[in-house]
Amino acid sequence: MGAHAPGTEPLIDGAGDGRCSNARELFRSILPAFLGALAALVLAVPILYLPYQMSFDNGKHPEFSVAVAGFSGLDAAAAASAGGATPTPTLLDPTFDLTVGIKEPRKWSTACVPRGTTAVVSYRRVRLATGPVPGFCGQNENTTEVGSVMAWGTAVPVPRFAVDSLADELGRGEADVDVKLMGPARYCAICDQLVIECKARLGRGEASPPCTVRYDTPTLPDDPARPRGRQQARKELRTPQASSE
């Protein structure tokens, strides 16, 4: 009782082996597909995650600012204005200590002032000083500032109307200067020049309101790297030739 008949044992064992064999074959058949799907998932997650994260930066833009931390050489404007009318422009030797800042509200993008940028300080469209700006970047939802950016001028002729206006505004503490950060201009047919225009108040050391940013097509002389023959041929095409009789 309870014992299997001798003839039935091979049938039971054979059925078990068949089921195991079928399971192994099924596992082997689906394993490549499973591993492929897993690999695709591993690769797809970062590919899809990065655009998802970058979507939070949409609608956000970096802000550039300039502060005049200090200045000198403008006292002559007040003295010249107090001295009465003069027919010749007043010569000034102005120096400006600038602080350039980038407020980057985006996490996955970077805004930069490129290396080779020049700061141009003007008053009433009269250029007073220029100086180099070191290249730097703002990133990761932070504000980055670079100080001691010096711009200077030597024996700069300033017309009478600008001298009088500058002296009056300095006396009232309301003198503003225009600071233009001009990126490097490259010899490239498709390259644009970064131009950042700011208006900074003198005597307060405060950051300017957000500057305007644009990209201009620079006007460059002939590329010195090109053969002179090509440059001359281009000039001849632009210059009408006299007709010979």
Stretches where pLDDT falls below 50 for ≥5 residues? 229-245
In whole angstroms, how far apart are the ends?
134 Å
Gross morphology:
elongated
Briefly note the structural class of the backbone: alpha+beta
Largest sheet: 5 strands, antiparallel
Helix content: 25-40%
Radius of gyration: 36 Å
**Total beta-strand segments:** 12
SSE pattern, N- to C-terminal:
HEHEEEEEEEEHEEEH
| Order of strands, widest sheet | 6-5-10-11-12
Mean pLDDT: 80
Give me the number of helical elements. 4
Strand content: 25-35%
Chain-wise SSE layout:
Layout: H1 9-54, E1 63-72, H2 75-82, E2 90-92, E3 95-103, E4 110-113, E5 117-123, E6 126-133, E7 136-139, E8 143-152, E9 156-158, H3 160-172, E10 176-182, E11 193-201, E12 212-216, H4 228-238
Antiparallel strand pairs: 1-3, 2-9, 3-8, 4-7, 5-6, 5-10, 10-11, 11-12
Protein name: Late embryogenesis abundant protein LEA-2 subgroup domain-containing protein
Keywords: Membrane, Transmembrane, Transmembrane helix
Transmembrane segments: 30-50
Brief characterization of the structure:
The chain has a domain at 63-219.
How would you characterize the overall build of this protein?
This protein has helices at residues 9-54, 75-82, 160-172, 228-238; strands at 63-72, 90-92, 95-103, 110-113, 117-123, 126-133, 136-139, 143-152, 156-158, 176-182, 193-201, 212-216. It has 245 residues and is of the alpha+beta class. The chain has a domain at 63-219. A 5-stranded antiparallel beta sheet has the order 6-5-10-11-12. A 3-stranded antiparallel beta sheet has the order 1-3-8, with no helix packed on it. Strands 2-9 form a two-stranded antiparallel ribbon. A hairpin with a 2-residue loop joins strand 5 and strand 6. Helix 2 packs across helix 3. Keywords: Membrane, Transmembrane, Transmembrane helix. The chain crosses the membrane at residues 30-50. Residues 206-245 are annotated as: Disordered.
